[in-house]
Amino acid sequence: PGKYPLVVSTWPFLEAVRAAWRTVDSGLSAMDAIVEGCSACEELRCDGTVGPGGSPDENGETTIDAMIMNGVTMEVGAVAAMRYVSDGIKAARLVMLHTKHTMLVGEQASVFAISMGLPGPTNLSSEESIDKWIKWKENKCQPNFRKNVLPVDGCGPYRAKNTVNLVENICTNSNWLDCGKLWSSHVSPHNHDTISMAVIDKLGHISVGTSTNGATFKIPGRVGDGPIAGSSAYADTEVGACGATGDGDIMMRFLPCYQVVESMRLGMEPKRAAEDSISRIARKYPDFVGAIFAVNKNGVHAGACHGWTFQYSVRSPHMEDVTVYTIVPE
Ligand code: SD4
Question: What is annotated as the active site (predicted)?
Answer without folding.
Answer: 194 (nucleophile)
